Amino acid sequence: MISVRWLHWADLVLPPLVALAVALVAGDLLILSYGQAPGSVWRLLLEGTWGNSYGIGQVLYKATTLTCTGLAVALPMRAGLFNIGAESQLAAGAFATALVASLLPTATPLLLAAPLCIAGAMVGGGLVGAVPGVLRARYGAHEVIVTIMLNFVVLALLNWLVSTYWHVPETLHTPTITSGQMPRLSQLFPQFHGSAANWSWLPVALTAGLVQWALQRSQAGFALRAVGFQPLAAENAGILVGRVWRQALTWGGALAGLGGINFVLGYKGYYEDGLAGGAGFLGIAVALVGRNHPLGVVAAALLFATLSQGGLAIHALVPKQMVEVLQAVVILAMAMAVPEVRRLLRTALTPRRRAP
Amino acid sequence: MSRLLILTVALFLLHAGLQWVEPASAGLAAHGQGPRVGVVFDLGGRGDKSFNDGAYVGAMRAVKALGAQVRFVEPGEGSDREAGLRLLAAEGMDLVIGVGFIFSDDLTGLAKEYPNIAFAGVDYAVALDGQGQPIQPPPNLAALKFREEQGSFLVGALAALVGGSKKVGFVGGMDTPLIHKFEAGYRAGVLHVCPDCTVLAQYAGVTPEAFRNPGRGKELALSQYQQGVRVIYHASGSTGLGVFEAARVQHGLGIGVDADQYDEAPGFILTSMVKRVDNAVYDAIDRVKAKKFHGGIIQFGLAEDGVGYVYDAHNRALIPSQVHDRLEQLKADIVAGRLQVPSTR
Predict the structure, then answer these.
(1) Residue of B9, B18, B85 for testing the chain A interface, max A β-carbons within 10 Å
(2) Which of A143, A223, B23, B269 has a Cα-to-Cα distance from B301 of 20 to 30 A?
(3) A343 lies in a domain?
(4) Residue A185 in domain
(5) What domains does chain B contain, in order, with CATH numbers?
(6) CB–CB of B102 and A172 under 8 A?
(7) What digits encode the pLDDT tens for the residues B131-160?
(8) Residues A156, B8: C-beta atoms closer than 8 Å
């Protein structure tokens, strides 16, 4: 007898495994088509990422941002909402945290500055996320359209603000902040020297854990999941569906905005136009592969960060675009594997139920 | 269910088996005895028909002529810029080149960290200190800058000489000091050969979007042509495609920028002010090979063949030979220092 618990786990874990297997074989064939040996390319990819502490640091840095944008998509998804706006929410969070950091007096103690800057990032992203939330709850405007369009509006607005009022001449970034800088990991562990890895991963990891707890254990999380499963039933049970929608998208935006601290407080020390660089859109893929599960999102973020950093490492043998194709294969294979696994699980279960 | 498991296991086994396949062509294509050079492109990447492609052409010429071993890196997102440069520096390249002003900060940091490796930045933005004096880059970092005003001066003189109108046009992209340099040189060139001419100069905007707005470019150019302008010079990225479109409609002439833009509107392009990124990149590699590389700000003007104008089979019919002689004379004057071209308005 297959237990329900086992089925739940199989449903969560099997699709990513299938997707990974498909992607690996597709990668092998791509590498062979370039006349290179798959073994040596994969080895190079692993050596350049998990093979040395610099590579690990880079993966950690990239995964930190991707975790935030992945959560920003995953959380509203659990309420049945599709947030495409993580790109601009991330940028708005980064801008807000740079703004807060530059308003603080020079050399404010980190223990005071960091929470303020983090709050700023979440408020910045949350404001952008609240717009589709309110429009959805109050007017029924579809959040996909609103978030896509809001990306253009917010990115153009930030671009205008930075290039017109607040930039260092001949560049597209703001002046360097003088407080709230997150220390690099290399200050404590010299092995990480040169990598962008910084202590931003800690608040982000804590947040991922907190989201997991809130979804599974809190009342608000229960309401959110109930709305995601069946809004009409949730409404009949007395849940204010509109409010849940509003909160889910606002918190989604805040989570994406949190990712801004990684670049601004941890890496460069300034807001730069275009810093999101597609991390917001990649967050959709991260949420998909992570099965909208906070811990899955962390794992998927690590996978995509490895591919992204590995793309640079294998550049000598195969074009970097190969990695982009691989990411796409993972996403496609996931999209196909989820319903397929569900169907097979169901057929595996049904005959046993019929048995006396 | 079990079918799915079998399929997954089969895929993993297939993957494991493929790890042993080793095509004959596998491995790094290491050839040439020349310097080892790494090039990191700007986010636009190759295929922009301008900046990045220019760097590529220069590097490939060095491969042929100098036996250089070149590796290219195309970064994805922001943090990849530093990671790409660092990857190449850590491999012990002889020269690492960042293409685009956006690399300036990353190059400065890495050059300090790897003092034995030569670095070069195309269009490197030199930072200013508190007194407004330029901060010199580290001794192993060459800032490859271009004297766009000198090339613009020549195309300005050309526009005034062949336009047959007292009004000459200019369309800039983003309203910044970098583009003012083009306008200043152009204006000086126009007024040098035609003191009573007027230059209509307009900008497409104040954001980087202004470099990607052909609609706005066409609008500005149409109004200039309707005011009696015959020739318009643009320094505005793809906004300039709108300028050429207006030239086609109004049967006017446009002047291209950065690369030879004849192909964008054949017959309506008088010439192009070309920025020879290829020459600057080749020159940097050549210096490394000859062990004559040094850091600091290196200017590429008319004398160094770093900027120039196009005069070839396509536009010879538009430019009378005495006008061409006059331009060559002006060029010689600038190279010899008899003529100073302003770089600010």
Answers:
(1) B18
(2) B269
(3) no
(4) yes
(5) 36-146 (3.40.50.2300), 149-274+311-336 (3.40.50.2300)
(6) yes
(7) 777 888 889 999 999 999 999 999 999 999
(8) no
Residue of B nearest to A18 (CA): B8
Contact at 8 Å (CB) between B253 and B270?
yes
Chain B residues whose beta carbon lies within 8 Å of the beta carbon of residue A156:
207, 209
Q: pLDDT-derived band of residue A356, with 50, 70 and 90 as boundaries?
A: very low
- Structure confidence at residue A355 as a pLDDT band (50, 70, 90): very low
Which amino acid, one-letter code, is at A253?
Answer: G
What is the domain range of residue A239?
A: 60-283
B11 and A169 in contact by Cβ < 8 A? no
Task: Measure the CA–CA gap between A93 and A259, rounded to whole angstroms.
Answer: 7
> 3-class SS at A277?
coil
Using CB atoms, pick whichever of B8, B22, B102 lies closest to residue A18. B8
Among the partner residues A22, A267, A279, nearest to B11 by beta-carbon distance: A22
Average pLDDT of the residues in A159-184 = 83
| Distance of residue A198 Cα from the nearest chain B Cα, in angstroms | 13
Beta strands in chain B (DSSP E): 36-40, 69-73, 95-99, 118-122, 141-146, 167-174, 198-205, 231-235, 253-258, 269-275, 296-300, 307-309
Residue type, A104: L
On average, the pLDDT of chain A sits at 88
Q: What is the pTM of this model?
A: 0.81
| pLDDT for res A258 | 96
| Two tokens, residue A174 | 């703001």
B232, B171 Cβ separation under 8 angstroms: yes
- Please tell me whether residue A279 adopts helix, strand or coil conformation: helix
**Burial of B243 per CB tally in 10 Å (0-12, 13-18, 19+):** buried
Chain A residues 305-344 within an 8 A CB cutoff of chain B: 308-309, 311-313, 315-317, 320, 340-341, 344
Question: Quick one: average pLDDT of B298-314?
Answer: 91
Q: In Å, what is the CA distance from A339 to each residue of A228, A344, A346, A350?
A: 18, 9, 10, 16
Q: Is the dihedral of CA B202, B206, B211, B215 positive or negative?
A: negative
Does residue A21 belong to any structural domain of this protein?
Answer: no
CB-based contacts of A145, cutoff 8 Å, min separation 6: none
Sign of the four-CA dihedral A35, A36, A38, A42: negative
